[in-house]
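User: My collaborator sent over this chain with a note saying "see what the structure looks like." That's all I know about it. Can you take a look?
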Amino acid sequence: MAKQGIRGGTLRLLTNSDVNSIHSASLEILEQVGLHVQSQRIMDVFKSGGAEVDAARSRVKIPEHLVKDSLKKAPHRITLAGRTEENDLFLGANNVFYGLGGTPNPYTLDFETGEYRVATSEDVRRNTIVGDALPNMSFIMSLAVASDVPPQVAWLHEASIMLRNTVKPIIYSASGAQGAKYLLAMAAAVLGGYENLARRPLITLFSESITPLVMPAINEGVIEFAKAKLPVAYVPGPMPGASAPITLAGEHVVCNAESLAGMVLTQLTNPGAPFLYGFNTSVIDMRTGAVCYGAPEWGLGWAMTAQLAEYYSLPTFGSGGGTDSKSPDAQAGVEAFMNAYYNAVGGVSLVHNCGTVAHGSAGSLEMAVICDEFINYIRRLLDKIEINDESMALDLIRKVGPGGSYLAEKHTRAHINEILHPKLFNRQAIPAWTAKGKLTARDSAREKVRAILREHKVSPLAKEICDQIDQVLKSASATMIT
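Assistant: Without extra context I'll predict from the sequence alone. Here is the result:
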């Protein structure tokens, strides 16, 4: 049975009128301004579906009726499959799940040395194993780039490593149509064929537009995944004040138009193809030029995005758990928790970037473990508080009376697990903490990483499946490396 996740969606920053205004403005942009499309194949799909296509200018304008018709066809609920059914994720009804990693980071913060270095395939493997072990990491993306293989196929090597080292759903990118075909072939090998893969979508395509209003040729991978009836997360990545308006409202108008265009592309390709709505509501620090993962506007923007997704009845792809800090310190904890929490209360379906540090340029396994711990806090904060005769305990209060003690009462024992007991964060008194080495949260996280890599075993793929994956890699290397 699929997991149900944290029940979010309690925060509403926008009024119904606000949502309608953003929606109407985005439709106007799509119909009157349109998109610059850098692929003839994508333009052909739009043209055959009824969009206005100016091939000479590579401009596509999408009428309102095409958006509305596509929204009727896109599924309101999606189940992402793990290698085992107990890891399936049911997306819908404000279920919220968190995931390890994001787009591959060129650097890794080495948990042994505490220093930054260039990431490798071994980092991809270790990251995946840790993500597989952490109970609150429900899906896996990569925290590292495999810099030790040719860059043309590095992403495919990363995907192959993840497929071998986790039983959880995987979300990953692909390089264009051919790259998507290779990625699909790998996932199909794991599940015993394309029909099984369509029934149990083990892998979801992460794809981005180029803000403002550009659909690049690499998005031909969206067509391949839609044809295969596998999920697509189409997630614009704006830079407010540079590639999008600096205001949250203006940013949402542009990016909502882009994400809706991606949704239309999937439904014109294959009606009913699963689609994940969303966009990275990033912020630029105008003093440094850095795209900020820890800004409060990031979380506010995702809460707004979740409301739009609810309006469209679409599952959502979000981002929380990342930080601009260069180490798992106080800044990292504040930023990662803040935005992870805002994603949850907004009701975002999938929240990626746990373990991402240094504004998206590096991965940290220590930070991933810390994220896994504070997600328990978020779960507890969003738990429904039961008010009934048992929980109010009126008879017990009468029995104990003034000045009495509840320590030895059955009611206390029966409800003790309603109190969150951290597994990583420290609540010891100073003498006990001192006696155990004065460990910080980062120290404890480092020890947990070591223990997972030493002890956690992922069910291996059969040799014939690994051979098929290797053959896909060999074919990709022959055709894509020039």
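A starting point for your reply to your collaborator: The CA atoms of residues 30 and 66 lie 10 Å apart.
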